[in-house]
Amino acid sequence: MTQTFSYRDFRQACRAFKPSEFIPYLAAIGADLGQPPYPDSVRMRTPPWGLAAAARESLLYGNEYRSRELSLREIDRLMYYFNESADIPTKHDEDDGFPLALLTAITYEQFPWQESMLEELSRSHAWLVEGLSQVKTKVVNDDSLAEMMGGMPLRDAIGATFFLQVGAYKNGGVFDPRWLDQPNFAEVLDVYPRANILTTIRRLTSTRDEYKIEWDRHSTGIDHLARFDYNPLVSTPFIQLKNERRLFAPAPSLVLRTVTPGGLYYRGIAAHGQSFANDLGILFEHYIGRQLRAIDGADVYPEIAYGKGGGSKSVDWFVIMPNLVLLVEVKSKRLGPAARAGATTLVRTLRDSIHKARNQLGRTIDEMTGGNPAFQHIPTDRPIVGLIVTAEPFYTAPADLFDRGLAMIRTSDRIEDVPVAVASARDIEHLVTHRADVGRVLLDQLDTRGGGVLSIRVDARGRNPILEDAWHSYPWPGRHGRSVNDPLAL
User: Fold this and answer.
1) pLDDT of 137-173, one tens digit each?
2) Can you give the pLDDT at residue 100?
């Protein structure tokens, strides 16, 4: 009979070690793993998300009255407990959301750790900064972004954060502010000013007490979701232990993620409330329009106001290609920590975002086929695809649409039924690199989908010029002629 472990067993195993020894040990192992994409040997044996969970349990529940010796064999044992822990989200009372909850929890636990940083970091500037001159916002501007970063422009904050991640990776998951006083750091400080580095490290560091407060603020509080619960390392990846000047990063790959759009989102919400989220939505809609205009040979039109006084709105973008029409509805809403962990809020969030967007696609198609003159420039003589674009990946949204019978919009005899797909910003950034072939790529997907969910996840064909320009706006040292997929290679 195969032995199974609960997540509580994993937590107890983490508590066998003194946090003052365990956290530095995990930091060293995390730095040794390098950057994604991770090989199977890492994902199966020492997953970075498992190490981050071990750090969380130690910081929350560990104490210094433990004596178990640390070794790589002990880490293997811990990760075996973690991988085999059998706690899973339970069936929701109000609907059949159990499979969706389980799949969402697992995908959000693992997938974000395996994404390259090129798109994530470039998107911060291309989305949040470059659109400000063309979009009217209430609270998001250069000054408010700088205030969130401790008084420095976002590009400088990203540069300082890059420096801290490199420092942690190259020094066993450790960063010591006293290094900045060494003569060999003078050249580095010409690129990344000392004040910027110190301000950034303060923003990204928490003590154990501060870590616990942050966890209490965002935790689901649900025992069976403990494995997938919030980890404050995503916002403060450095830990300052008692009587230690050095700072430790148990999951060093999280450092740069604090300055991606996802990392900045909750900091902005804390500072400006819903107005920040609203501004990000407007900026994101504009950003996706910029990406869609990179499709060669396509005519791109913005939303159409119709009805009495123009009070009704169509989808956000229409992309007219010789062989295909894309109807694009943009949603910047994100899954909160509880929804990511598979709590009942997941179904509600999907209804408020993905299902709402799908309904908007349906209403637009009704107007196109119903003879509304406001839509006469949108052709219906070729295949049509409805596309919901989200700011971050909604990994399980396509499966949810399919399970609920929402992956196809049934139409009149005038046009073919319209398939609905869900794509993230990253998916669109890759798709548009196919330029004039975007229509053909999507039609090929339609031909092979077999009644299933249309996939928009395709490999990029070359570089995305919008991301490329944004990437080179940052103060990378020696960036020219070297890999941009791995910040440590710059």
Assistant:
1) 999 999 999 999 999 999 999 999 999 999 999 999 9
2) 87
CA terminus-to-terminus distance, the chain = 50
Q: Strands 205-207 and 238-240, how do they pair?
A: parallel
Which residue type, as a one-letter code, is found at position 196? N
Q: pTM for this one?
A: 0.92
Give long-range contacts, CB 8 A cutoff, 24+ apart: 193-197: 193/156, 196/152, 196/156, 196/157, 196/159, 196/160, 197/160, 197/163, 197/164
Per-residue pLDDT tens over the stretch 313-355: 999 999 999 999 999 999 998 999 999 998 989 988 999 999 9
The per-residue pLDDT for 52 is 98
